[in-house]
Specification:
UDP N-Acetylglucosamine Acyltransferase, domain 1, alpha/beta, 4 helices, seven-stranded mixed beta sheet, five-stranded parallel beta sheet, 19% helix, binds coenzyme A
Length: 195
């Protein structure tokens, strides 16, 4: 009896699962969890193409989370591997150029939590930063790269696995580590490619 009463009490909550907003969340979850092979990436791209600020045809693997659609551009031929998160907030934009590759589990956000005020929990503090993230054409970010706003990665650059990028990276660089430091230039090997 007690159980039934509690179910009845929460009936509004149960039914809210079917309201418009939550139905869209289910749909979004479904789209994100589709496989990374066969027709499914194309299906996912069709879902995103009219929602992002700007995009060419790009690939996403399973479990990629893209949020802040109206602030995000993704160029033709880009490839976003499994479990990546691209999250734009505030006014700061995130732009991926053409033929950009993101390795598995990269996180790209445009803002960070403010950490200045110690009198209130950080979760309640506003997000800061309005510089955004620009990743130019033909960059390759290895697995688990993290970028938290205010960064431009120049054309043709490679960012090593597990790097945290907090400064601009010149074009055709190879940068590794946390924080990421440029260790070489791809131009030395004369391997420039036009995209
Ligand atoms: C950066 C990378 C492309 C290698 O570039 P490279 O020019 O061939 O570099 P090298 O292997 O010659 O290494 C140069 C130096 O950088 C270091 N280094 C290379 N990758 C590194 C990384 N991810 N983090 C920290 N240091 C790294 C090497 O240890 C070496 O240091 P040393 O000179 O002190 O020995 C590669 O290491 C990498 O991170 N690839 C990403 C792999 C990945 O994530 N794949 C899955 C996604 S598709």
């Amino acid at each position: 009896m007690k159980k039934i009463k509690s179910v009845l009490k929460n009936i509004g909550l149960y039914f809210s699962v079917f309201n418009k907003e939550n139905r869209f969340s289910w749909w979004l979850h479904f789209i994100r969890s589709l496989p990374g092979e066969g027709v499914f990436p194309e299906f996912r791209w069709r879902f995103y193409k009219n929602r992002l600020k700007d995009c060419g045809k790009f690939y996403t693997h399973t479990g990629v989370i893209i949020k802040g659609w109206e602030l995000i551009s993704i160029g033709e031929g880009s490839w976003i591997n499994i479990g990546c998160m691209i999250f734009a907030t505030g006014k700061a934009q995130i732009s991926l150029g053409k033929n950009v590759m993101l390795g598995p589990y990269c996180v790209i956000t445009s803002q960070q939590h403010s950490i200045l005020d110690t009198t209130q929990p950080m979760i309640k503090q506003s997000l800061t930063g309005d510089g955004g993230v620009i990743i130019e054409d033909d960059c390759w970010l290895g697995a688990h790269v993290v970028i938290a706003g205010n960064v431009r990665i120049g054309k043709g650059s490679v960012i090593g696995a597990n790097s945290f990028v907090n400064k601009d990276i010149p074009a055709y660089s190879i940068a590794v580590g946390s924080p990421a430091r440029v260790i070489k230039s791809r131009l030395q090997a004369n391997t420039q490619v036009d995209t």
